[in-house]
UniProtKB/TrEMBL annotation:
Primary subcellular site in the record, as a coarse category: membrane
Protein name: MgtC/SapB/SrpB/YhiD N-terminal domain-containing protein
InterPro entries noted in UniProt: MgtC/SapB/SrpB/YhiD_fam, MgtC_SapB_SrpB_YhiD_N
Membrane topology: Multi-pass membrane protein
Transmembrane listed as a keyword: yes
Entries under Pfam families matching the protein: MgtC (PF02308)
Domain of life of the source: Bacteria
Keyword rRNA processing: no
GO cellular component annotations of the record: plasma membrane
Leader sequence residues: none
Subcellular location: Cell membrane
Record family assignment: Belongs to the MgtC/SapB family.
Length: 236
């Protein structure tokens, strides 16, 4: 039965594959400035692969022991899915930490899903299912990299603007948004008046639907050119 046990070379190969595949997915997330990057995805993939290998070793050790001690067969059990099920549960808590809910917007869902998916890739790698691991890894990378380009859906962005002279500033902003087909979904504003000051400033949060090809940098630069706009930034 020794041929069924993992040797050092096989263990190293599986862990190396976990590093490469987890790192590639993590790089894509880190490049897009998402909460969980290369290190997190590598560690998740390595951890999942390691636990899968431990589960395999426990199973084969139990089988070997049972064959050497037939009288103990009735009291031995090795559930091949028990430890793996705990990986899935653990990743749920880790993924929840990447999800940010802010009023009507939710961010981090894709990163949470990528952590869950790379854990599954790690399990397949640790179990030695190389074809399954490599195929699923390619699918995960393709989903993260190409789907948004193949399906150019509008993006929702929240824009914080601090301004003075409400009428002139708001008219300028609305004209720019209409010209570039940017739809205002919601607007929330607060009026500020400093002590001993006669003029007011306004803090406005616009929830916008931005066309996929629209440059966020150009949006900020164009709006900030108005002298009545004191501060502007994207908040998601």
């Amino acid at each position: 039965m020794d041929e069924y046990h993992l040797h050092v070379g096989e263990m190293a190969l599986r862990l190396l594959l976990a590093v490469v595949m987890g790192g590639a997915v993590g790089y894509e997330r880190e490049f897009k400035k998402r909460p969980a990057g290369m290190k997190t995805h590598i560690l998740v993939c390595i951890g999942a692969a390691l636990i899968a290998m431990i589960q395999q070793e426990i199973t084969w050790s139990s089988i070997t022991f049972a064959m050497d001690n037939p009288k103990m067969i009735g009291v031995l059990s090795a559930d091949n899915a028990r430890l793996i099920a705990q990986i899935v549960s653990g990743i749920g808590f880790l993924g929840a930490g990447t999800i940010i809910v802010n009023k009507d917007s939710v961010t981090g869902l894709t990163t949470a899903a990528s952590l869950w998916a790379i854990a599954a890739v790690g399990i397949a790698t640790g179990m030695g299912f190389y074809a399954l691991a490599l195929t699923s890894w390619v699918c995960v990378l393709a989903a993260l990299t190409f789907v948004s380009h193949l399906m150019p859906l509008p993006r929702t962005r929240r824009l914080l603007v601090e301004l003075e002279n409400w009428d002139a500033s708001n008219d300028f902003i609305q004209e720019y948004l209409d010209e570039h087909k940017i739809k205002v979904e919601d607007m929330d504003f607060e009026i500020k008046r400093l002590p001993h000051e006669t003029f007011r400033t306004y803090s406005v949060i616009y929830t916008l639907t931005v066309p996929r090809g629209m440059s966020e940098k150009n949006l900020l630069l164009s709006l900030s050119s108005n002298p009545h706009i004191l501060k502007i930034r994207l908040i998601n």
